[in-house]
Please model this.
Amino acid sequence: MIAVLGSANMDLVATVDRAPGRGETVTGRDFTTVPGGKGANQALAAARAGGDVAFLGAVGDDDFGRRITALLAGAGIDVSGLAVSDRPTGTAHITVDATSDNSIVVVPGANGTVTELTDAHRAAVDAADLLMLQLELPLVLVTQAARYARERGVRVVLTPAPAVPLPAELLTAVDVLVPNEHEAALLAGVADPVEAAHALAGRGGDVVVTLGARGALRVSGAATTQVPAFEVEAVDTTAAGDTFAGVLAVGLAEGLEWPDALRRASAAAALSVQRPGASSSMPDRAEIDAFLAE
Ligand code: ADP
Model:
């Protein structure tokens, strides 16, 4: 089983010709609400790929929270560890202009109330083969969870996004660190992804740096492996990284060898970028199998 402790948000997306300036009102072209948050996205990617998943976090006692919970539960995810907070469900207020540039206000809301490891979190980690973490919940909680899992011998996979400097206490409890190239550069303090990956692997454990259309790079000890991306026509790369991480976790939890787990993750991400949306673009297990058999 895979336990995912992370954020759940509703993305409120307005498309506009140009973003308003200070004090200005503009008329938008369109509006959509899209369930998101890196935690919920990774949980959905893993569940679609056939993983047995429990999602831990918090939503508000509101329509957004109920919609997210229904989406997760509908994908077969165990939501018994998803708390209902008295704060509103986390939201991301996104304005996308005609040149595809965006401005975003994130209000963590309920996500910000997950500050301590609860008995429900511990029970889920105890039952898990693997714990997936990101950095959209308070850092103290993420650190506490990683250390708890490490003590129990449960493998910890961390996507360090949004990138912030990480305490050694957290880094040394992580088995698999999965940054994109920007996060890797920020964490390691060097721009080159290969150098950054080696610097981050110095803590022990594996590092998988995702490089967008250029694939990914795995560093384990002194060994470096290139993971090619599949050549596809990308229309929307939202949540490509979350799809990659979720499907990688399923492979590792099922005991696949690294090359196979990475290949499945790349295939799932390649499928997701060919379709618009975040969770709606994530492939199921049969699609991943069919794509790899082509
Ligand atoms: P993030 O979304 O976190 O920034 P990346 O952009 O690095 O993550 O993408 C994650 C993975 O998704 C890549 O390692 C690759 O396997 C796949 N991917 C991303 N963009 C493309 C693309 N244009 N074509 C094929 N695969 C892609």
